[in-house]
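The data are quoted verbatim for completeness:
=====
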Amino acid sequence: MVTQAYRKDYPRPQFVREEWLDLNGEWDFSFDDENAGEAERWHMHFPAGQKIRVPFTYETKASGIGVQEFHPRVWYRKSLAIPQEAAGKRAILHFQGVDYKAKCWVNGTFVGEHEGGYAAFSFDITPYLTYGGENSLVLEVEDSQSCTQPRGKQRWVHDNFECFYVQTTGIWKSVWIEYVNEVRIDAVKMTPDIDRHMIRFDFQLTGVEGRDGLKLETLITLKGQKIKQLGLSADRSWITVEVNLFHEAGGPWKQCLWSPQNPNLFDVEFVLCQDGKQVDKVHSYFGMRKISIENGQILLNNAPLYQKLILDQGYWPESHLTPPSEEALIEDIDKIFAMGYNGVRKHMKVEDSRFLYWCDVKGMLVWSEMAAAFEFNDQAVVRFTREWMEVVPQQYNHPCIITWVPFNESWGISTIAHDVHQQRFTESIYHLTKAMDPYRPVVTNDGWEHTISDILTLHDYVESGEEFLKRYQDKDAIVNNRIAFNNSKYAFAEGYSYTGQPIIVSEFGGIAFQTESGWGYGDQVKSEDAFIERFRSITQAIKATPYIAGYCYTQVTDVQQEVNGLLTEDRKPKVPIEVIREINLK
């Protein structure tokens, strides 16, 4: 069941306004390998060149170009008409994702820049527009093969290698304009507290200082039933209020919580009024759920949660990191559920907001993971920290996200096992994340060599269940670094020790059929029966190990040269889905 404010293809479904303009589609496009664009004022005189279909990058077939070679600079131009009736409003230009450094001009005037390929950003372009006529929007994007920029699974050499794929350069998520008033709601941070039946709203308002007669009204409903309505004086830019949802209304509280089994969502409407007249209206939603850790157990809504996750890199053959459609996102979620999983570890990618929306709606648990850099120096630290601090608040309100994963397998922190500087970096990111969100677990270095971490996660691609059970029969040996796993890796970095955290095997499996055109983990299998037997053996062994609180199988689909998915790149099952489901649910 969708939320009341759902709009198909709306780029930011958790903060919805009615007035917006979709800028996806055909744009003018040009490569700038000689770095001539700014000197030659392409923002004023765009060169005759190619067309590209935004938001697909030039490396993809879906873009209409399909050139996979790296180009360090690309330019975009879009002509757009702004209606005369919008002249009394502010026009906010939104980019959901541009990789890596973007500079923007409107009608020849520079309006701003942003660095970081995974976080959304926006510019107020109101002063630069012509209303009732044509406008020129130009974007220059600079990318690099530097390993100091967070790049995730994007290759930094000419060809694909190991588990690194064709790079992503330029606009790869939606571009849009929304029309807003000078006085408006800029953001709302929503924090559930199920133990007190409360929801806390932290409002950020713009244009309210020095104005009288402003009132902020909030209406909360559940399945069409009014739960609470309140009004506040909007006399400052930051307002915090806690709402007791069922203090007056009563009702079966536990049936209103969000979980994979019952993904209940409360609809909420925020209206800002001045002297009784509406000046802004935003639709949103929230889920009442709690993720916590007690006595070595992960709890969802104060009950033990066994996580059956699958690694999801979010690639498609024609469009790479960009989903080809909203329907494609829904199809992936439905197939993951059909295979008996209750969540995804979204790997090395900050996913489209619409994916998180549908996980909220359908009850899919999500581990949200930052794309890694692959060097450690001052520049890498600054770039990573700045972007991660943008990503966390942008995703904070999604109830589906139950774990933050800033680092994976010591990528970008390759000597963390003994390097105190890299260890301190991970500690700082842990504490910064906790400062912004103290309510979700943080996995500091997923897979091995943990420093401080709320969950101990282990990556192990051992092929047989028998070998797994033998290796993990002695929990103390694993958690106290007496036994190595996965190519001689250990659970903790030097100077750190196990403090009773829950344990999850957050990568395993990776089984591939025999082929010359790609790879998987371990020996390739020759038949469907061999695939199922190996899958069954290792999955059951993990489930039979009593101190393990969940697992994450590698992976949903094949990705380019990595052919170890349960589905092919075009989402066809390699073995019967019902068999995978039966093994997961048994």
